[in-house]
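Issue: ligand-bound run for 6OD - logging full I/O for the record.

Environment: standard queue, default settings, no custom constraints.

Inputs:
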Amino acid sequence: MPDLPLFRHYIDGSFQPSRSGQRAPVRAPATGETYAEVALGGASEVDAAARAAKAALRGAWGSMSPDQRWDLLERVADGIEARFDDFARAESRDTGKPLSLARAVDVPRAPANFQNYARLARSVGGDAWEQHLAGGGRALHYTRHRPVGVVGVIVPWNLPLLLLTWKVAPALAMGNTVVAKPSEETPATATLLAEVFDRVGVPPGVFNVVHGAAQAGEALVSHAEVAAITFTGSTATGQRIQAASAPGLRKLSFELGGKNPSLVFADADFDAALEGTVRSVFTNCGQVCLCSERVYVEAPMYDRFVEALVARAKALRPGLPDDPTTQLGPLISEEHRRKVLGAYERARAEGAQVLCGGGAPRLAGPAAGGTFVEPTVLAGLSDASDTNQHEIFGPVCHVAPFSTEAEALQRANETRYGLCAAIWTRDLSRAHRVAAGIEAGIVWVNTWNLRELRAPFGGVKLSGSGREGGLWSLKFGTETQAVSIRL
Ligand code: NAD
Ligand code: 6OD
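Outputs:
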């Protein structure tokens, strides 16, 4: 077999293999082909990266003016734009998502994240108080923003570049340095990003990438030089990270799983609600934490809506990422496909009606080796069923009718998760009432996944803690220092 390309770590400004020589195959999920290998890091690589990050904080990066740092981040944004096509192809090959989706969503968000935070950080100021002292004289108290230090960034495989840059950009904008651990399933765009950092002249040690699996993540979250961890991934891993980082009392930001409801009221614009629900269930093959897995439809519209949803699901065309007619990519891996097909089986065992899908399609040509599953619509289960309680993270939803607004709200909240919800209605008062009653960090009305990078993003309950986005991300990367001067 010819030598495959190797995705290497980027530590202290140099691309390097693992010291142990460990590596793992990287597969293109749309075909099953192994097209590269990734270096698997562990404690030794994390230690080298964290030390380099600490040295950069005290050295070249720490001694730059904020303006110089922000200018460099804008150059990183330009560097990504200059290689837009390389990023889009790499992302769609690693994840299997349609190239059109990578081009429309994932890659544009990367430069936008750097631009947004470089600009927003310029507006962060401090507070000041003048105090008149009882015995005469005055004092001035003011705040300063100090970087937290070395920030550990751990991201999953579903939106690899979007999520990585979403966390790296604000951390660097506030003067921190970063050790990032991408998912071992999708190492390509993190490596390309390191090449951009290298090329635009960001000093060594400011941005480090340690590839690897859970072992590398575990080393990162317990490393003594790592002051804060921002993590996006599953709730179970978030719980493990919280426990592992407790002895160091690290700052934590968690964006975790969801079991998001969509509430479709009978007064909604039918076509908009249908289109939005199709997007919210099937985008990225359902592998977005924001996807709707529970769709509640008001009784008078239920039959018509479900019939149309099933027709749309059946018509979704699976295929290879660079085929412009492809609407649905594969799942990320064979292991994930087994989980999703297991969830379809569990739904059947619980007594679900399978309105469409429920299995794996037979595809011809190179896609025959891909990890595809059928888009699936289920019905007939209680809110308490396993199917309606556990995140599946595939192209699937359960549909159920409701009769009153109060019932819809109560059922939407019957979950341990609380990431987001979508409400479809023309009644403005109802939109406000229901949004206020939903136990979730993000509510969309008559839309889904409409992003504003200055707005807070995050979940409640088991969907996470803390908020990212805008000033929330910048605050996460900051220690506020109080200075008091007797005048
Ligand atoms: P995962 O939790 O298995 O892995 C996420 C990352 O954590 C990977 O880089 C992985 O290598 C690393 N990791 C695994 N075990 C670790 C450990 N013990 N210590 C440190 N790091 C560890 O998640 P996944 O399967 O890659 O992604 C899917 C999950 O992510 C879904 O639950 C989805 O809802 C969630 N997600 C949430 C958001 C959000 O913003 N709320 C966004 C994307 C994905
Ligand atoms: O759009 C974003 O900024 C974001 N954090 C999306 C997360 C998607 C989850 O899979």
